[in-house]
Design a protein that fits this description.
Largest sheet: 6 strands, antiparallel
Helix content: 10-25%
Shape: elongated
Keywords: ATP-binding, Cell membrane, Disulfide bond, Endosome, Glycoprotein, Kinase, Membrane, Nucleotide-binding, Phosphoprotein, Receptor, Repeat, Signal, Transferase, Transmembrane, Transmembrane helix, Tyrosine-protein kinase
Membrane topology: Single-pass type I membrane protein
Subcellular location: Cell membrane; Early endosome
GO molecular function, one term: transmembrane-ephrin receptor activity
Radius of gyration: 49 Å
Protein name: receptor protein-tyrosine kinase
Bound molecules: adenosine monophosphate
Number of helices: 15
Strand content: 25-35%
Structural class: alpha+beta
């Protein structure tokens, strides 16, 4: 139903039986005897309902012309499918010319006889897709040009990426894009009770498959992920932060009564400190410290106790000490005595508050005085528990009688040849009434071997009978009823040679000693610092040297950066041959380079055969810098000599325009070449190309050259499928480039081909051979996917983000598993983990020698055979091809066996193909 017969009514609606004997309606036409048939059948208007690409599945049967006698020249075995976009849902007449052809459809299976009794019906199913974007709907039409067809069914559909939940974000059912390679960017919305971790995004691919999820959501506090949704934590469980992995059981001494708890409440009598995490058990304040004991030593007291019996489940118990000075009285809360806080001159060691140890020495107390010490224990929840007054234990002590403290300084008030007058201050803590002072002195040279003692009630003394010009050492101590205190430290004074007195303060010998030794130590330290800093700088220099040396591979030629030459012309003449312009014949323009046109032509140098060359010229009106940049590529290229690096023939610098002449690569750049021949090569051929590129890159890395812009667009291909690395323009990477507009070379602070570049090179411009290896992995992907754009049309920012999140390009269609694994190895985040080019080369060689290892793929392309057009004639191409796949050592064996051209080898592959069909795989594998 719904199909219109048009014009000449040659299509007929007929009922037939299908294979299962069920009656079906078909449209049939079979005017095979008459020439120039043009019979049309069209559908109703089909609304496009938002689709941009629709698929038309046609089921039909078709009669084989050979089985019909006398129809030669008039009978056809195809029909044409057309469409016409329209907003009109009831167009009664549409001109033939308004229809656009989708395709000519042929049958896979035609049948030779119509025998209803035998029910031989060979049903063909063909699917075609077409972009419909301009109108609200469309019509389809079938044009018969003289075949014998029965149209059994027409199914029209479009593809969607189905509604899905990924990383807790919902992505709606999304219609795929208009083109087979287009990706539709879709923003997800967080599922109920979740919040965005990072904007959730995914791409809907043309096949209706979701690709590259980025970002996502996290369940809110109190909720956890279960089966792609956020479900409330059950009673007894909680989740405090959205970033917590899931609901957790309430910690000890806490509970949650309702679903969706973000924290558990403490049981009665248990508490949580402000700084306690929700995952910590609820705790209690400590009980009082235990077994407080005191030991009095004159005017000091040592207090010791043991930790509380109950720590409340915490480990942050601390102690503080309260010190009260008490007089006997009736008002006190401490045993009938009146107490007041001790003065600030009392010393506590190691401290008075925040103590984590259980021993304190209290000193500088008054002698003969009553004190009460209270030790408080507290922890993190003492405050929260409301028990602000911490649990405590106390002890009362009375200090002993104590001798006075030492005199702290002595001054000489009068100095003569034979006498010294000294005075001093009362000790800081006399601890009672001072009854007298004792002065002990001796000549410094004598040490204490003989000394004299003088006693005095006052705080001064005149010492007489001394030798002139002699240093004396003095000590003073005080005495109370409790006895003598300690002597003071020594003070030195010298008698005079002069009749005139010298007045000055005593110098503490210890200080003197310290000062002298201090200067010595300072000198020593300076010397040490000097020596160490000298050593350090030597060390770092050595390290640097060794780092630099690490790259220098003895015996291998090292690349020289032409920019290290002050005069660029000197570099170019060192590395490139000047060619006389008369020996060049330009033939045609083949491309556009950064500095001007690229042409192909011929070069005939005297005494050599004529060769095809590519000629790059520098367009007129260039600046000095452009000239230098243009020639730098030749100065770089001229240093290389390898079959997989584009060969420099020479330069023209003596006349204008300036030219760079290189070997001619017939198939141009690799990316365009692969796109043009999508699906036409065998895996071995693709691996052969990759091997060539890896070999060129190994050579460059051995020479210490970092390419920085390795990509399929910068690989050139010659007529024998040999791939060569090109594009050594430094300026391209560092400066403005027309590609910047297309987004290939975008990055802040310089142009970087984002999709091809390793993350460390993007992040902090760390370009190394290892970053070239990353790019090589991308080139592998480009090659195996026949020139697909890496990361399709994702934008650069998304690519960077996806890589950062660990996303890597998936295996292209039919890509052998080993090759994709090698790509993934090249894309290791840690650059030290990536393979070297030499390892890549070995790996590819192994694969080429054992093609069986390439067999595991996701698809069908493996057992295809080389297409004849890429096998050019002759022995040369055979040699070059063998070399490109690393099998040149079989050259003589093949020659001996009579295979002297690629054609003869192709014949062998056909033989093998035939044998393969008869299950003889041996030869194929060996090849
Ligand atoms: P380039 O400036 O090197 O990127 O060259 C621009 C374009 O010219 C390339 O994409 C190639 O298509 C073409 N081309 C450059 N060098 C050669 C060559 N040696 N042989 C053939 N085509 C070339």
């Amino acid at each position: 139903t719904g199909l219109y017969k048009c014009a000449c009514l040659k299509w007929e609606e007929v009922s037939i039986m299908d294979e299962k004997n069920i009656p079906i309606r078909t449209y049939q036409v079979c005017n095979v005897l008459e020439p120039n048939q043009n019979n049309w059948l069209r559908t109703d208007w089909i609304p496009r309902s938002g689709a941009q690409r629709v698929y038309v599945e046609v089921k039909f049967t078709l009669r084989d012309c050979n089985s019909l006698p006398g129809v030669t020249g008039t009978c056809k075995e195809t029909f044409n499918l057309y469409y016409h976009e329209s907003n009109e849902d009831r167009e009664s007449y549409i001109k033939e010319s308004s229809f656009i052809k989708v395709d000519t459809v042929a049958a896979d299976e035609s049948f030779t006889q119509v025998d209803v009794g035998d029910r031989i019906m060979k049903l063909n199913t063909e699917v075609r897709d077409v972009k419909v974007t301009t109108r609200k709907g469309f019509y389809l039409a079938f044009q018969d040009v003289g075949a014998c067809i029965a149209l059994v069914s027409v199914r029209v559909f479009y593809k969607t990426c189905p509604l899905t939940v990924r990383n807790l974000a919902t992505f709606p059912d999304t219609i795929t894009g208009a083109d087979t390679s287009s990706l539709v960017e879709v923003r997800g919305s967080c599922v109920n009770q979740s919040e965005e971790r990072e904007e959730p995004k995914m791409y809907c691919g043309a096949d209706g498959e979701w690709l590259v999820p980025i970002g996502g959501c996290l369940c809110n506090p109190g909720y956890e992920e279960r089966g792609g949704a956020c479900k409330a934590c059950r009673a007894g469980f909680y989740k405090a932060k959205s970033t917590d992995p899931g609901c957790a059981k309430c910690p000890p001494h806490s509970h949650s009564l309702r679903d969706g708890a973000t924290i558990c409440d403490c049981h009665a009598g248990f508490f949580r400190a402000d700084t306690d995490p929700p995952s910590m058990a609820c705790t209690q304040p400590p009980s009082a410290p235990q077994q407080l004991i005191s030991v009095v030593n004159e005017t000091s007291v040592v207090l010791e106790w043991t930790p509380p019996h109950r720590l409340g489940g915490r480990s942050d118990t601390s102690y503080s000490l309260e010190c009260l000075i008490c007089q006997t009285g009736s008002h006190s809360h401490t045993g009938g005595r009146f107490c007041a806080p001790c003065g600030s001159d009392v010393l506590f060691s190691p401290g008075q508050t925040g103590l984590t140890t259980t021993r304190v020495v209290v000193s500088e107390l008054r002698a003969h005085t009553h004190y009460t010490f209270i030790v408080h224990a507290r922890n993190g929840v003492s405050q929260a528990s409301g028990a602000g007054a911490a649990q405590s234990v106390s002890v009362s002590v009375t200090t002993n009688q104590a001798a006075p403290s030492p005199v702290s300084s002595i001054q000489a008030t009068d100095v003569t040849r034979h006498s010294l007058s000294l005075s001093w201050q009362q000790p800081d803590r006399p601890n009672g009434v001072i009854l007298e002072y004792e002065v002990k002195f001796y000549e410094k040279d004598q040490r204490e071997r003989s000394y004299r003692i003088m006693r005095t009630f006052s705080r001064s003394v005149d010492v007489t009978g001394l030798n002139p010009l002699t240093v004396y050492v003095f000590h003073v101590r005080a005495r109370t009823a409790a006895g003598y205190g300690e002597f003071s430290t020594p003070f030195e004074f010298s008698t005079n040679s002069d009749p005139f007195p010298l007045i000055g303060e005593g110098v503490n010998s210890a200080f003197l000693l310290l000062s002298v030794s201090g200067v010595g130590i300072l000198l020593l330290i300076s010397a040490a610092v000097f020596i160490i800093s000298r050593r350090r700088s030597k060390y770092s220099k050595t390290k640097q040297d060794s780092e630099e040396e690490k790259h220098l591979n003895p015996g291998v030629k090292i690349y020289v950066d032409p920019f290290t030459y002050e005069d660029p012309d000197q570099a170019i003449h060192e590395f490139a041959k000047e060619i006389d312009v008369s020996s060049i014949h330009i033939e045609k323009v083949i491309g556009m380079g950064e500095f001007g046109e690229v042409c192909s032509g011929r070069l005939r140098v005297q005494g050599k055969r004529e060769i095809y060359v590519a000629i790059k010229s520098l367009k007129a009106g260039y600046s000095d810098k452009q000239r230098r940049d243009f020639l730098s590529e030749a100065s770089i290229m001229g240093q290389f000599d390898h079959p997989n690096i584009i060969r420099l023939e020479g330069v023209v610098t003596r006349c204008k325009p300036l030219m760079i002449i290189t070997e001619y690569m017939e198939n141009g750049s690799l990316d365009a070449f692969l796109r043009k021949h999508d699906g036409q090569f065998t895996v071995i051929q693709l691996v052969g190309m990759l091997r060539g590129i890896a070999s060129g890159m190994k050579y460059l890395s051995d020479m210490n050259y970092v390419h920085r812009d390795l990509a399929a667009r910068n690989i050139l291909v010659n007529s024998n499928l040999v791939c060569k690395v090109s594009d050594f323009g430094l300026s391209r990477v560092l400066e403005d480039d027309p590609e910047a507009a297309t987004g290939t070379y975008l990055s802040p602070g310089g142009k970087i081909p984002i999709r091809w570049t390793a993350p460390e090179a993007i992040a902090y411009r760390k370009f190394t051979t290892a970053s070239d290896v990353w790019s090589y992995g991308i080139v592998m992907w480009e090659v195996v996917s026949y020139g697909e754009r890496p990361y399709w049309d994702m934008n650069n920012q998304d690519v960077i983000k996806a890589i950062e999140e660990g996303y890597r390009l998936p295996a292209p269609m039919d890509c052998p598993v080993v090759l994709h694994q090698l790509m993934l190895d090249c894309w290791e985040r840690d650059r030290a983990e990536r393979p070297t080019f030499s390892q890549i080369l070995n790996m590819l060689d192994k694969l080429i020698r054992n093609p069986g290892t390439l067999r595991r793929t996701g698809g069908e392309r493996y057992l295809q055979y080389p297409q004849a057009q890429y096998w050019s004639q002759g022995w040369w191409s055979l040699c070059e091809w063998l070399q490109s796949i690393g099998l040149e050592r079989y050259r003589d064996t093949l020659a001996a066996a009579g295979y002297t051209s690629l054609d003869s080898l192709l014949a062998l592959t056909h033989q093998v193909k035939i044998k393969h069909k008869t299950r003889t795989k041996q030869k194929q594998l060996r090849l």
